[in-house]
Design a protein that fits this description.
Elements (H helix, E strand, L loop, with lengths): L1 H11 L1 H8 L4 H10 L5 E2 H7 L5 H13 L3 E6 L5 E6 L1 H4 L2 H28 L8 H7 L10 H16 L6 E5 L13 E7 L5 H10 L3 E5 L4 E8 L2 E13 L4 H11 L1 H17 L4 H7 L1 H12 L1
Parallel strand pairs: 5-8
Antiparallel strand pairs: 1-3, 2-3, 4-5, 6-7, 7-8
Helix pairs in contact: 1-2, 7-8, 11-12, 11-14
């Protein structure tokens, strides 16, 4: 009830809004906090203690606070003239409120900044976002294995096989979502292998016309995704890895972990640790798995 009364007073009584609006100015809050450290402070000391403020802005801020009766001003007839400012009793009642607001801001700053970045990113097409913006919008999260991932993979494999039927592709479900019993990012990885004569640029056009976004090109490798939106992940998210036939280490890696549960458990533990450290840095997350992947591939080929 008390909160509703406060809200009504702000909405209905214009002077209340007028007073509260004064503290939408960050400089007013800083000046009050600095003045709270002493009975009075010289003008030049205020400038020194608030290094980002200009003399013009400080003078204007003090003028407003004086007009509100929150600050007093004493002038001394000295050479050179000395002017000091301090908080009135009314002004000092604001200090604990400002400190509470400061504590709240410090506790919630990270979350607020993340939401601001996400809101900014939503106004851009994915292709125009920086890596940092993409990583903020699409953090690394791990989920327990979900049986529907296999079904989603089968449906997408059928769709891809139809789109690329002219290239006789081999299409395979790979990645952690293809390994039961371990946590995975909720992204279904699919490997597409085509023959040496297949034109990658033609395949790129065909996939993009089918709703995929080309995210990376490196030699005779292309990476595509689907299910990434400016608002975040869609319900179903796919990564498609386009390769030449035989460039398929992902299959050997998947099959070894399927056959060796203890290795799969080690991989899961590694991913959990890396996901905590690199939640918003996909490149670092992937790079940190390199040694483990190489170890498993050596074991798979031995």
């Amino acid at each position: 009830m008390r909160k509703k009364e406060h809200l009504n007073s702000i909405i209905e009584i214009c002077p209340v809004r007028n007073v509260v609006a004064r503290f939408g100015n960050k400089w007013a809050l800083l000046v009050i906090l600095v003045l709270s450290e002493a009975e009075s402070t010289r003008y030049n000391d205020l400038l020194r203690k608030i290094p980002d403020i200009s003399s013009r802005v400080l003078a204007s801020t003090l003028k407003n606070l004086l007009a509100d009766g929150l600050v007093f001003r004493n002038s001394y007839q000295e050479v050179p003239p000395r002017v000091e400012y301090g908080l009135t009793d009314t002004g000092r009642t604001l200090v604990p409120i400002i400190l509470q607001l400061t504590d709240w801001a410090q506790k919630n700053m990270k979350t607020i900044i993340e939401h601001r970045r996400a809101a900014q990113a939503m106004s851009k097409p994915l292709q125009e976002m920086t890596l940092e913006e993409l990583w903020e919008l699409f953090p690394i999260t791990l989920e327990p294995h979900r049986p529907e991932w296999a079904e989603w993979a089968r449906e997408e494999i059928d769709a891809l096989s139809e789109v690329l039927r002219a290239y006789a592709p081999t299409v395979t479900h790979v990645g952690s979502t293809a390994i039961e019993g371990i946590k995975a990012k909720p992204i279904v990885d699919i490997l597409v292998e085509v023959g040496q004569s297949a034109d990658f640029e033609d395949i790129r056009v065909a996939l993009e016309q089918s709703g995929y976004i080309c995210m990376a090109v490196a030699g005779e490798r292309m990476s595509f995704n689907k299910g990434y939106t400016p608002q975040g992940y869609a319900e179903r998210v796919f990564h498609v890895h386009l390769r030449r036939a035989g460039d398929n280490d992902e299959i050997a890696f998947r099959d070894y972990l399927r056959a060796h549960p203890e290795a799969a458990s080690r991989y899961e533990r590694l991913k959990k640790d890396l996901a905590e450290r690199y939640r918003n840095n996909r490149d670092a997350y992937t790079e940190a798995k390199t040694d483990f992947v190489a170890e498993i591939l050596r074991a798979a080929r031995s």
